[in-house]
Amino acid sequence: MTFIPSEAFKSISYPSPTVKRADRAVRCAPFQLHFFQTIRDNSVYLSAIASNSGVESSYTRSPVSELAAENSLLWLIKVGVLRREVDGQGITDSFRLTPLGRQLVEKWEREGQKVPDASTCDRISDAFSRSLGLFL
């Protein structure tokens, strides 16, 4: 068996528009960095994210309904930040980070332990993209 040092493995290189779109989508989502750090290593169920349990776990900034949380999570799946967890029975209601999501979390950890706030322009652009299903 051949040992390959970890530095020999390179991260996936994403096109700049893909990274910018994912970054904007995460900044516009109601989730805190702790949520993304948690799902980097462990899956988190929707019920732990929605309502007061999301705030108590430091996953969200304020209580979010289950429907709003799921809509935000589904958008983050579409832009490539998250994936749904799969078990032997099929798709579950838990979520994990993709390699793109990991890169964003690592960037924010280096920059100050917080997901940056979205600007008004970012929020308008993200809402427009979500409503039309566009990847701008």
Structure notes:
- The chain has seven helices and three strands, in the order H-H-E-H-H-H-E-E-H-H.
- It is mainly α and 136 residues long.
- It has one domain: Orthogonal Bundle (Arc Repressor Mutant, subunit A), CATH 1.10.10.10.
- Strands 1-3-2 form a three-stranded antiparallel beta sheet.
- A hairpin with a 2-residue loop joins strand 2 and strand 3.
- Helix 2 crosses helix 6.
- The radius of gyration is 15 Å and the shape is globular.
- The relative contact order is 0.19.
Could you name the key traits of this structure?
7 helices; 136 residues; three-stranded antiparallel sheet; single chain; mainly alpha; 3 strands; Arc Repressor Mutant, subunit A
Q: In terms of topology, how is this protein built?
A:
Elements: H1 16-28, H2 33-41, E1 44-45, H3 46-49, H4 51-56, H5 66-78, E2 82-87, E3 90-97, H6 99-111, H7 120-132
Antiparallel strand pairs: 1-3, 2-3
